[in-house]
């Protein structure tokens, strides 16, 4: 095999390697976006749950206070 043939094979191998690397990088970026969106939604859900717990504690405290005070 001549030097030109080896050079062509090396360039083809480099193209395949670069394509695989590029695809992996593209998938990583897409997965990162989805992960950030998922984390954002989880943070919103956690904040909403903390709000619900705060309301429940406040209502229970007022009910307990009224029961002790006037009961």
Please explain how this structure is put together.
With 71 residues, this protein is mainly α. The chain contains one helix and no strands. It has one helix at residues 3-70. The longest helix has 68 residues, at 3-70. The protein is rod-shaped and about 100 Å long.
Main beta sheet: none
Our measurement of the CA-to-CA distance between the termini, rounded to an integer number of angstroms, reads: 100 Å
Quaternary form: single chain
Structural class: mainly alpha
Report helical residue fraction. over 70%
List low-confidence stretches.
none
Assign an overall shape: rod-shaped
How many DSSP helices? 1
- Backbone CA Rg: 30 Å
Strand content: under 5%
Strand and helix order:
H
Residue-averaged pLDDT: 86
- Based on DSSP secondary structure assignment, what is the total number of beta strands? 0
């Amino acid at each position: 095999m001549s030097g030109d043939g080896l050079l062509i094979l090396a360039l083809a191998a480099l193209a395949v390697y670069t394509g695989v690397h590029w695809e992996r990088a593209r998938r990583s970026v897409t997965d990162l976006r989805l992960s950030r969106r998922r984390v954002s939604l989880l943070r919103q859900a956690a904040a909403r749950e903390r709000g619900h717990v705060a309301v429940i504690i406040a209502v229970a405290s007022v009910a307990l206070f009224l029961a002790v005070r006037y009961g």
